[in-house]
Amino acid sequence: MVYGNINYLPSALKILIGTPLKRTEHKQKTETEIKLLRTVPIDLRDESNKLTHNLKGHTRSISSLCFSPDGTKLSTASSDGTIIIWSIHLGPTDSYPIHIECVTNFLAHRSAGINDLSWSPDSNYLVSASDDHSVRIFSTSNLRSTPSTTQVDSKNQSGDGQAESQRLRYRELIGHSNCVYCLKFNPIGTVLISGSFDETIKVWDFIGGKLLRTLPGHSEVVSCLDFSRDGSVIVSGSFDGLIRLWDATSGQCLKTLVISKDTNSPVTFVSFTPNSNHLITCSLDSIVRLWDFKTREGTVVKSFTGHSHKKYSIPARVLLLNFESLMPNEIKRIAESREDRRGEEVLITGSEDGTVWVWHLQTRQSILKFKSHQDFLIGLCVHPKNSRIIVTIGGVDKDSSINVFDLYQKQ
């Protein structure tokens, strides 16, 4: 996706500021390799990693990736409108290798790129947001765990073209007047929200497929969305530099936060922390912010800097890690001194220089920094059941790839 003064959004580049790509450049075919790596625990001076797999599937720039909530599938999407679903098998202990294979590869949007993917909480549905202004819902509950090329049937189509392959049926949600950019389910899977270049948020009844309401609260593209843990509050971020909190039932705007009164930097990522007591935001001023959003105007309680976020939308995640399996040694002592041994809260994000950063959330100390890609790093996700597994999207030109890292792996 390319941003600037543009009307057309190519999904090959996710939030790149500058002149929009010409369609001839957008369609240039480049072989995309999906590399699956496993890294040893490393500190700020050690950037070693171990290549374990090299898979091929997408033929153009990868625009989105996400794990299913049950952790058994990884979905990746491309600017050519294709989706690949990979099966993920983790061993019974951390010492077992990760096994991954392609379950299906299908054309989800025939004439447009895909900007975002989201799994339903029960992992039975995969939803895509596309440049063609549509949201499509694919049923994956009947997928076999064997490689295939999948046919896609709409419930409104005749289903012609029989093939000896798996089929995915889909239904379509129509309502946006411009490219759909981001998606999010509520925690129980009854409501789906979508953000668009039309500057609105659509709230959908997922089960019935009906539009419940439209939230017209931004003056630029709605770039990111999330639900609170109980599903009662929606948060949205936009390139207008605003973060808005909404009542999920009534649609009333509860509060507006300004990312920076000095720069009004575009917001590229927003998420509630796991307990929903704080917000995490990323913006194109290269600052990750931890917010106390319950104060009158919202208060930034911590800021994390050092990485580079100036062109791409790179998310950040707060998660628990067992520090006894990480380096350096002083961090091990922090974990060992605690009575609660379930883990420490860390913040993880990527940088446009191709590195992944891990911070201790409370002390803001950099714990890990390792090289993920030679070119830009433009996306990141964490395994929902085992937070040691991190997946990153590589740059769009020299290193268009997806890498998987295991933070606990020993050489």
Automatic annotation (TrEMBL):
<feature type="repeat" description="WD">
    <location>
        <begin position="173"/>
        <end position="214"/>
    </location>
</feature>
<dbReference type="InterPro" id="IPR020472">
    <property type="entry name" value="WD40_PAC1"/>
</dbReference>
<feature type="domain" description="WDR5-like beta-propeller">
    <location>
        <begin position="55"/>
        <end position="405"/>
    </location>
</feature>
<feature type="repeat" description="WD">
    <location>
        <begin position="107"/>
        <end position="148"/>
    </location>
</feature>
<dbReference type="InterPro" id="IPR001680">
    <property type="entry name" value="WD40_rpt"/>
</dbReference>
<feature type="repeat" description="WD">
    <location>
        <begin position="55"/>
        <end position="88"/>
    </location>
</feature>
<dbReference type="InterPro" id="IPR059122">
    <property type="entry name" value="Beta-prop_WDR5-like"/>
</dbReference>
<feature type="repeat" description="WD">
    <location>
        <begin position="260"/>
        <end position="301"/>
    </location>
</feature>
<protein>
    <submittedName>
        <fullName>WD40-repeat-containing domain protein</fullName>
    </submittedName>
</protein>
<dbReference type="InterPro" id="IPR015943">
    <property type="entry name" value="WD40/YVTN_repeat-like_dom_sf"/>
</dbReference>
<keyword id="KW-0677">Repeat</keyword>
<dbReference type="InterPro" id="IPR019775">
    <property type="entry name" value="WD40_repeat_CS"/>
</dbReference>
<keyword id="KW-0853">WD repeat</keyword>
<feature type="repeat" description="WD">
    <location>
        <begin position="347"/>
        <end position="369"/>
    </location>
</feature>
<dbReference type="Pfam" id="PF25175">
    <property type="entry name" value="Beta-prop_WDR5"/>
</dbReference>
<feature type="repeat" description="WD">
    <location>
        <begin position="215"/>
        <end position="256"/>
    </location>
</feature>
<dbReference type="GO" id="GO:0035097">
    <property type="term" value="C:histone methyltransferase complex"/>
</dbReference>
<dbReference type="InterPro" id="IPR036322">
    <property type="entry name" value="WD40_repeat_dom_sf"/>
</dbReference>
